[in-house]
Amino acid sequence: xxxxxxxxxxxxxxxxxxNSSAAVLSWDQATYMPPGGAAARGxxxxxxxxxxxxxxxxxxxxxxxxxxxxxxxxxxxxxxxASLIRKARRDYEKAVKVPAAWVAKFETHAAASYQDWxxxxxxxxFKRLEDNLKKTLEMSxxxxxxxxxxxxxxxxxxxxxxxxxxxxxxQRVFSELQEELVPLVQAITxxxxxxxxxxxxxxxxDDQLAFGQIVIQDFGYDFxxxxxxxxxHPFMTKFSLGxxxxxxxxxxxxxxxxxxxxxxxAGHGMYEQGINPVLEGTPLADGSSSGVHESQSxxxxxxxxRSRGFWEHYYPKLQQAFPEQLAQVELEAFYRAINKVSRSLxxxxxxxxxxxxxxxxxxxxxxxxxxxxxxxxxxPEAWHARYESDLGLxxxxxxxxxxxxxxxxxxxxxxxxxxxTLGNILGALxxxxxxxxxxxxxxxxRHGQFDTLHSWLKENLYMHGAKFTADELIQRxxxxxxxxxxxxxxxxxxxxxxxxx
Amino acid sequence: xxxxxxxxxxxxxxxxxxNSSAAVLSWDQATYMPPGGAAARGxxxxxxxxxxxxxxxxxxxxxxxxxxxxxxxxxxxxxxxASLIRKARRDYEKAVKVPAAWVAKFETHAAASYQDWxxxxxxxxFKRLEDNLKKTLEMSxxxxxxxxxxxxxxxxxxxxxxxxxxxxxxQRVFSELQEELVPLVQAITxxxxxxxxxxxxxxxxDDQLAFGQIVIQDFGYDFxxxxxxxxxHPFMTKFSLGxxxxxxxxxxxxxxxxxxxxxxxAGHGMYEQGINPVLEGTPLADGSSSGVHESQSxxxxxxxxRSRGFWEHYYPKLQQAFPEQLAQVELEAFYRAINKVSRSLxxxxxxxxxxxxxxxxxxxxxxxxxxxxxxxxxxPEAWHARYESDLGLxxxxxxxxxxxxxxxxxxxxxxxxxxxTLGNILGALxxxxxxxxxxxxxxxxRHGQFDTLHSWLKENLYMHGAKFTADELIQRxxxxxxxxxxxxxxxxxxxxxxxxx
Lengths: 501, 501
Prior knowledge:
Chain A has 501 residues and is an all-alpha fold. The first copy, chain A, contains 23 helices and three strands.
């Protein structure tokens, strides 16, 4: 039986090699590839992905998984071996339900649709993308229908990134959260606006990058097993547990862009760098879910990186790096500037408090489209209407409206956005447990020390990789189910103080 | 029949995608990969290569090639279609003779042997590498024996990089060349030594790189379809005809290292960038042979880049870039410095005249080892003995002796070195034809113009990719077989003048 288990691992590792290779090609495309490389690169990545898919849905893998059922039943549920078989089986059972021809067709469509979006967005030309989006919606519904028996048509799509989550669960959590957020945003925006001019000065690129790298090295991001490069849309990518890279972009007139994207992506990176090395090359060498992954990027970016304690230590260093810009700016003014709350149009630029309202709008629109209650033609106006009702703003054009996010233009409609807000909620929830176990964490942060927090996160979350689902992790770590209270308490505490509510 | 041809192309393109992906991984390993990525990267590249090999030796490819025999016979020999089938058949017939298990075993051995060399070389520890080399020699003989009927046991190994060439052909050419070189080197070294201090000053890295990039852009290297990065051992690599990259290394105390390696690799790169785009993704989108490839790197590096005419145009620009170092140095002194001839120990640092003597030593030792006339234990001393007799020098240790080149430690023994000298010979041969067709090329070079030369090379060599063998190309371009006379005339003319012989 151990021989069959080794054979399963060998096959999964070969598939992982193909997927990791595709990731290298994709990273290169986003960082260093010259323009002439684009055409062939798309084809090369498609070849690698479809070979990986072909090898994964091989009947032999199904047979191995069947044969290993008894072996798995005799193992401890928490063991690496049982978890590997369990996770591989779940992935396999999902993968075989989706015809390879459909996958290839969808990937081709998504790649073309992405190219069209990149061209049409600067020209504010939603009309040009309507047919693509209709096809995307049609195929998203087709995808869901490969998994009959769902409660809501979005469930199979959500399950893809946040396994085990259902639309109804998320709707319940989001509506609880919204009830708290709306009055909070209202109360904040009734106060005097914060001055964020200190961060909106001229900051040279090299100095910005150097500062960010010092901070994330202090966090515990390991540059021996990673690196940072520049790109247009920041991301984290993993080629192996020894090579987890991050990217960023720099705005020389806004300090916060590169800095907080660096802390954010480093959070994702530290998660993957912290996975137990014995899981290397298997489907367990991955994050648990999109929500859990985002919880870590948001923890290091916001809970740590936008906290007053953190800046008590780092602000003097930042002032030293940028004396011209900051020598005259008090810590408190800087702290308020990087935590300015305001209703705005762009999700990725939004502050911690309003951010979730952006996510909820997208999530609700996804559900409506999938339910057939919102036509693609009516999407731009539905977008504007929701922004007006939820944020009191109307974008001057679709560029800053329905065209702003790439997700629907490069992937399915459904399942793409909920992870961001789940991440905020989970980040606060896990952080609460970390504090319970180690009450001196905030004090350490005030001294630029992150070992205790990082070690706790590694031990309780990172090292497990994808052994456990988000629900299982939450139960293990907090002893109960998902709760929004710690997140609400965090927001109210922090912003109540800043805005003297 | 056209359908079968398309099916063959589709399969070959998938294989090319795998090989190109492996090339991206290898480039990344040599440029940006953090140390932690090494272990998994080796495995990933091995997975890609063995999948490519597996797909290439698929019986279905053999069947398609058989079925297409009649179709091929009806086509013009020079057509892209006939050339593709012809080349694919040659490659296929070679590939199926080598068992996949042997390939995997050899790749694993070569990777381990390379690692050991990298560790043992700085410690001058040849002993530690003896067993590896014995195995390499054993496997090189095994490889040759997969191709029974050879005239010399090195022939199948030579055929791998210089298709159609035999040891006896090369021995004949090399001995003719040696007869000319030995007295030339003797005569030169009797003259007063040239002063190369002008190039051995402090030159900042960024300025060196910037200058080299300006020159190769003028040559016609296309940065829209390529880029230059830093590495330890400079190389050129192609991911597609739209993405042909070069690398270099910089010595801040020697101007010539990065500069001439840049011109050299750009020559390789321009060859591949010049291949007809309709050949993309097929086995024809490649150089013709290692000798032909090297002819182009050496042409742009030496025939053009170390010529007096070239520097008449570029030296004032170089002086402007490095006024402190060069303002007081005359063009003539600089020209002589970059063309200094001296007997030396290291092949890669050797000048144009003595370079080939280094190659011949290695080529002869390879043959002796394969013939069983030289044992691995005796190799270091055989190396020293040849350097003493041919160059009058003895390396103080094996570091600058038999340990200096990676080739035998990372590949087969046999077939690895002849291409360098063939390249020198072919470069001069092709250049002679270019001059015959366009006598004003030297004058254009004196004005920093390379269009006529570049266009002629593209039209007569580059665009054909691997459609023709080296012999076919030589016949097409020069109307006759390989001759060493143009190369001898080039060396005697140039160095006779510099050294006033």
